[in-house]
């Protein structure tokens, strides 16, 4: 840790680190092949499908 990491602004509050724009994502679901999935992935897929079905039924 360098000295400058402990400095604060005039108000006495430290600045929070900001995420650079190139590191931000748009929250898209990334899908991988079935052979790489484990038990938790399969449960998450079932829950996602059920949630999508509930949303679809709610809109109609």
Automatic annotation (TrEMBL):
Sequence segments annotated as region (Disordered): 1-26
InterPro entries xref list: YfhD-like
Protein name: YfhD-like protein
């Amino acid at each position: 840790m360098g000295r400058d990491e402990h400095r604060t602004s005039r108000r006495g509050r430290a600045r929070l680190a900001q995420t650079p724009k190139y590191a931000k994502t748009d929250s898209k679901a990334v899908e991988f092949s079935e052979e790489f999935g484990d038990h938790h992935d399969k449960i998450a897929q079932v829950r996602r499908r059920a949630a999508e079905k509930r949303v679809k039924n709610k809109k109609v």
